[in-house]
């Protein structure tokens, strides 16, 4: 059966209106109209056709827990008797709990690139991805045989420049989502929960999540990883303000360093951030943070799912958001009772 999908992405205009832009036009057979945003920050409107391939691309800053989440996800998929196809696209990754079905290191390794081309780690990584884009068959050929019952799990490197600064990963995602592969992909963007201890860091991370979301133009969930590290340390009410980022966090006490202090007897208009005094007193920084907070608020697109990889239910909950975002279950053929029994006997 020919498979087609179309992503309609949202462009948000300055005045808060939404413009709908259609990308890549195709024919449709059975259609599902999936409307977002939902919890976790799904961006795109998606129209799917049954019979596509399904996958998730795991992204986020260095050390956010991407590879660990991939392993937990694969373990959960296996325990739920679901098939999984694991792709490692981090050319520097060495240790895996589950052996990848496709590993970019079999095409190119970061250490070889750095040694032979005398590049640093970041330049080397960009070279590796450019090389992958020139040799896409390495990735697409093994995927041709993957059926719609599989969840394709793609582990990415932690350099967020790849998603937010240079359009390499957005380009790769477009290749995977179109043409003969036509994979319905959900981006999962991980941010470490310990960031909530530093509001400026947390909002900078949130901004990077939003930037990746807008660059990718695919369904997207944001995840606060390593929740075990903040368990019992943050009141539930306070945590809620980070899960659905609340700009009032930036109005908290002056110790946050994010607030412009009102001074008696002084012109209380906003100080000029370019003035040396504003820079030295931290007021420029506070103003920048308020502007970033306002930007995130204006888009009101980013919210987070909480993830504790040790907790099977938590991994299952995140997976069900990903499944929903790509309409995985709608595409599955109902199984005959005999088939289920056979699987049970495996
Ligand atoms: N406590 C805790 N530690 C975690 C969790 N997930 C990952 N870690 C630890 O965080 C470190 C980084 O985890 P990785 O899964 O390698 O992170 P990554 O995002 O793949 O890192 P890069 O690929 O290098 O960007 C490791 O030491 C993990 O053991 C978690 O849920 N809880
Ligand atoms: Mg990793």
From TrEMBL:
GO terms for molecular function: GTP binding; GTPase activity. It comes from the Eukaryota. Keywords: GTP-binding, Hydrolase, Nucleotide-binding. Pfam families: ATP_bind_1. The keyword Hydrolase applies. PANTHER family: GPN-LOOP GTPASE 3, XPA-BINDING PROTEIN 1-RELATED. Small GTPase required for proper nuclear import of RNA polymerase II and III (RNAPII and RNAPIII). May act at an RNAP assembly step prior to nuclear import. Binds to RNA polymerase II (RNAPII). Belongs to the GPN-loop GTPase family. This is GPN-loop GTPase 3.
